Amino acid sequence: xxxxxTAGSTFEARVLAARLGAEGIxxxxxxxxxxxxxxxxxxxxxxxxxxxxxxxxxxxxDQVDAIFxxxxxxxxxxxx
Length: 80
Hints:
The chain is of the alpha+beta class. 41% of the residues lie in helices and 19% in strands. The protein has a single domain (2-67), classed as Alpha-Beta Plaits. It is built from 2 helices and 3 strands. Strands 1-3-2 form a 3-stranded antiparallel sheet. The radius of gyration is 15 Å and the shape is globular. The termini are far apart.
């Protein structure tokens, strides 16, 4: 397993793990990720070494999509 990133909290780490899992990439969380509450402590997100680049591309694509979604004007019928 290779470290993909370090999340700032258990919640963030679990969201990243779920996103990667939706694409078929297995993850492992290391750090304060086992408790019942989303504590604000760093958690390492690990993926298989052979899927490290694919995982990076997925997360980068999500960031790019978020930027374009935030900057696009709302549709005329959008209540934003």
